[in-house]
Design goal:
There is one protein chain. By secondary structure, this protein is of the alpha+beta class. Among the domains are: 49-178, no CATH class; 253-298 and 322-549, Chloramphenicol Acetyltransferase. It contains 26 helices and 20 strands. An 8-stranded mixed sheet has the order 13-7-6-10-11-12-1-18, with helices on both faces. A 6-stranded mixed sheet has the order 14-20-19-17-15-16, with helices on both faces. It starts with a helix and ends in a 30-residue tail after the last helix. Keywords: Acyltransferase, Fatty acid metabolism, Lipid metabolism, Membrane, Transferase, Transmembrane, Transmembrane helix. Belongs to the carnitine/choline acetyltransferase family. Residues 183-760 form the Choline/carnitine acyltransferase domain. The chain crosses the membrane at residues 50-75, 112-134.
Length: 811
């Protein structure tokens, strides 16, 4: 998502003086430290993993094995074939602690200890064998490269073996020690794929120059840089992810707002209660229930095909996490636990406890606390109202100001940075309105992405935003994890607060208030006068960024995933080809396209780039714009383009992508102070079209058939380039796709609404190539322009029990 902007922006950050000092360290030292960090994380997780039975054998299996050995010993059988007797001889002889057992043999404390040691060694060997076998099985990726809908005999055998070795009841981190490490691709293959990806967007002269640079790189530098990467891949958990986090995110000196954060939306057509405090109470309680399940590892691991586990490492930092600014680079601070949330309302900061002596506060008690904040008439102190704008400032500026805050207002700063998460109670309503659906959705997206520049704490892992009419949203900082992680949490939150917790008929949370709870603590900021100009400067910069972003949201309801499936096509590839057609119509040319794909098939994997603008896609787009081409000809080219995109996506997911490998090679070259014109050119490229699909991961939490409006409408992010677009999309049920488009108003080349119209037209034009497509297109054209892509229905706020959601009513 927002990573495309950061991936472009990391290059200038390496040219600053501070970054050069850091990169002067020997590359072997950096590889050693990278591995050390990996092993430290594993050791910190070990005890918790052991207690929760993650090995994948349960600790109870050790007890069963020990009991069986003791029983065999009692029956005068020796399952150890003499090993236990040798272990006993090595143990000290505790006199007076021996008892006589059957057959006159002495079976004292030494016998018990010998049996325990033998059982432990045997159990450990079995567990290690299980790990090794499962890791070998999970290293197989042939299933990913098979044609859609087809499964070979080796893959069927592989699935059966994975089922056998995976255990019966895996928990969140069950598979972490069995996941394979991300492979380092062949540098020759990577360069070849790169040249193939840029061919459609370069002139013949520019391509020939790039090919010469690539050949020179392969001849002079590639083998040396590749050797260091292979060394790191053997030593560290992942050869690229820690550098990706550091250089793409934490070393970036740009503002987090728009550049690094992204947002997640509430239900599009439904608001379960219009009461702001009640919605906040249920949402905060649901989020903390998710954290409780996370701490107990009760969240099941994500499985592809219901069988292939994905890495769960990113879940660790969802809560109690803050990105702390530094002069040269930031760092991520994660606390083991936090029993409060930080709340911002009308420029005032509060600390709200989330637990009592009896445990987690009820939703009604939390609602009471939030209502107390809303009813508090006290004004914000001078400069306090705009204090949060500092988190939207350039990172080096915020780092310097934070030093003064840490001295003058340490307690207040710690309350915010040490909170489980941040809550913003906005004073304005948001969401879809029947008076102006298009403008209201655009304003809703803008409020979540940027707000007013001073009403979000962008450093926190995420900010829960509750608007005055009860609408919700999420603003997420990107460095600690990628979108599917926060999306998983958000799906749980929406489903839990609406369907499980519910609301009373008057809109309040269920339960009763607790009059014994102390008032929320108002945070006092002793702001020194020398930072006042910095706050004003940060506010101006944040407002400039906020006012420059152009957001456009539109739900496409003419067809969805079900139609695409009937066409026997990948839904993601279908949309990507439509985006290529729409962008070409919008700008009149092709451009490098960034699509994010996950690499969580590997330990600590994050993302890879799918370069969706292929020669096959360009051929299809040109055919669509050529009136001499027939529909069958266009359709044939479309299927070829879709197949190519699917191949690229699978290649990226299997660790054989282009961009992360080239990124890691570039970092090694900087450590070695080697100048590579080829790598420098690669990382100076601009992504004028950055795209991402928001996955729906837990459909079992929602009754899409009976209540189709009760599904999150996805989220969005800022553009990666000043003259580019950011586009995300989510499939809602089977018959709707919601698009989130962003661009910058300062650009004369882009217009989010214009691209939205092109996307709508492109989807309908592509659908018309198929047998039932013309009917869809005629149906849409007959609706008239007043529909403008929005549903002819509007759902009123629900005030009854959430188990019986209200249905939509017409405009």
């Amino acid at each position: 998502m927002a990573e495309a902007h950061q991936a472009v922006g990391f290059l200038p950050s390496l040219t600053s003086d501070g970054a050069e000092v850091e990169l002067s360290a020997p590359v072997l030292q950096e590889i050693y430290l990278s591995g050390l960090r990996s092993w430290k994380r594993h050791l910190l997780r070990f005890w918790n993993d052991f207690l929760t039975g993650v090995l994948p054998a349960s600790p109870l299996s050790w007890l069963f094995l020990f009991s069986a050995i003791q029983l065999a010993w009692f029956l005068q059988l020796d399952p150890s074939l003499g090993l236990m007797e040798k272990i006993k001889e090595l143990l000290p002889d505790w006199k007076g602690l021996k008892t006589t057992c059957r057959g006159g043999q002495h079976h004292g404390l030494r016998g018990v200890l010998a049996a325990a040691l033998f059982a432990s060694c045997l159990w450990g060997a079995l567990v290690f064998t299980l790990h090794l076998a499962l890791r070998l099985l999970l290293s197989y990726h042939g299933w990913l490269l098979e044609p859609h809908g087809a499964m070979s005999s080796p893959t069927k055998t592989w699935l059966a073996l994975v089922r056998i070795f995976s255990g019966r009841h895996p928990v969140l981190f069950s598979y972490q020690r069995s996941l394979p490490r991300q492979p380092v691709p062949s540098v020759q293959d990577t360069v070849r794929k790169y040249l193939d990806s840029v061919r459609p967007v370069l002139s013949d002269e520019d391509f020939d120059g790039t090919a010469v640079l690539a050949e020179e790189f392969l001849r002079l530098q590639a083998s040396l840089l590749q050797g260091y990467l292979r060394l790191k891949s053997w030593w560290a958990s992942n050869y690229v992810s820690d550098w990706w986090e550091e250089f793409v995110y934490l070393r970036s000196r740009n503002s987090l707002m728009v550049n690094s954060n992204y947002y997640m939306m509430d239900f599009l057509y439904v608001t379960p209660t219009p009461l702001q405090a009640a919605r906040a109470g249920n949402a905060v309680h649901a989020l903390l229930l998710y954290r409780h399940r996370l701490n107990r590892q009760e969240i099941p691991p994500t499985l592809l095909m219901g069988m292939r586990p994905l890495c769960s490492a990113q879940y660790e930092k969802i809560f109690n996490t803050t990105r702390v600014p530094g002069v040269q680079k930031d760092y991520i601070r994660h606390l083991h636990d936090s029993r409060h949330v930080a709340v911002l309302h009308r420029g005032r900061f509060f600390r709200v406890g989330t637990h009592s002596r009896n445990g987690l506060l009820s939703p009604r008690a939390l609602e009471q606390q939030f209502q107390r904040i809303l009813d508090d008439p006290s004004p914000a102190c001078p400069q306090e109202e705009h204090l949060a704008a500092l988190t939207a400032a350039p990172r080096d500026m915020w780092a310097q100001v934070r030093r003064s805050l840490k001295t003058q207002a340490a307690e207040a700063l710690e309350a915010v940075e040490g909170a489980a998460f941040f809550v913003s109670l906005d004073s304005e309503p948001a969401g879809l309105t029947k008076e102006d659906p298009a403008a209201s959705l655009d304003a809703y997206a803008h409020a979540l992405l940027a707000g007013q520049g001073h009403d979000r704490w962008f450093d926190k892992s995420f900010t829960l935003i509750v608007f005055s009419n009860g609408k919700l949203g999420l603003s997420v900082e990107h460095s600690w994890a990628d979108c599917p992680i926060s999306g998983h949490m958000w799906e749980f939150t929406l489903a839990t607060e609406c369907f499980q917790l519910g609301y009373l008929a008057d809109g309040h949370c269920k339960g009763h208030p607790d009059p014994t709870l102390p008032e929320p603590q108002r945070l006092q900021w002793d702001l020194p006068e020398q930072i006042h100009p910095s706050i004003s400067l940060a506010l101006r910069g944040a407002k400039t960024l906020s006012e420059n972003i152009d957001c456009h949201i539109f739900p496409f309801s003419h067809f969805g995933k079900s139609f695409i499936k009937r066409c026997h096509l990948s839904s993601d590839s279908f949309i990507q080809m439509a985006l290529q057609l729409a962008h070409f119509r919008d700008r009149g040319r092709f451009c490098l396209t960034y699509e994010s794909a996950m690499t969580r098939l590997f330990l600590e994997g994050r993302t890879e780039t799918v370069r969706s603008c292929t020669r096959e896609a360009c051929n299809f787009v040109r055919a669509m714009e050529n009136r001499e081409k027939t529909d069958p000809q266009c359709l044939a080219l479309f299927r070829v383009a879709v197949d190519k995109h699917q191949a690229l996506l699978k290649t990226a997911m299997s660790g054989q992508g282009v961009d992360r490998h080239l990124f890691a090679l570039y970092i090694v070259s900087r450590f070695l102070h080697l100048q590579s014109p080829f790598l420098a050119q690669v990382h100076s490229e601009q992504w004028q079209l950055s795209t991402s699909q928001i996955p729906v991961q837990q459909m079992h939490l929602f009754d899409v058939h009976n209540y189709p409006d009760y599904v999150s409408s996805g989220g969005g992010f800022g553009p990666a380039d000043d003259h580019g677009y950011g586009v995300s999309y989510i499939f809602l049920g089977n018959d709707m796709i919601t698009f989130h488009i962003s661009s910058k108003k300062s650009s004369t080349k882009t217009d989010s609404h214009r691209l939205g119209q092109h996307i709508e037209d492109a989807l309908l034009d592509i659908a018309s190539l198929f047998q039932e497509g013309p009917h869809l297109k005629r149906q849409f054209r007959g609706l008239g322009e007043e529909v403008s892509g929005y549903r002819c229905g509007f759902v009123c706020s629900q005030t009854g029990d959430s188990e019986t959601p209200t249905t939509s009513t017409d405009f």
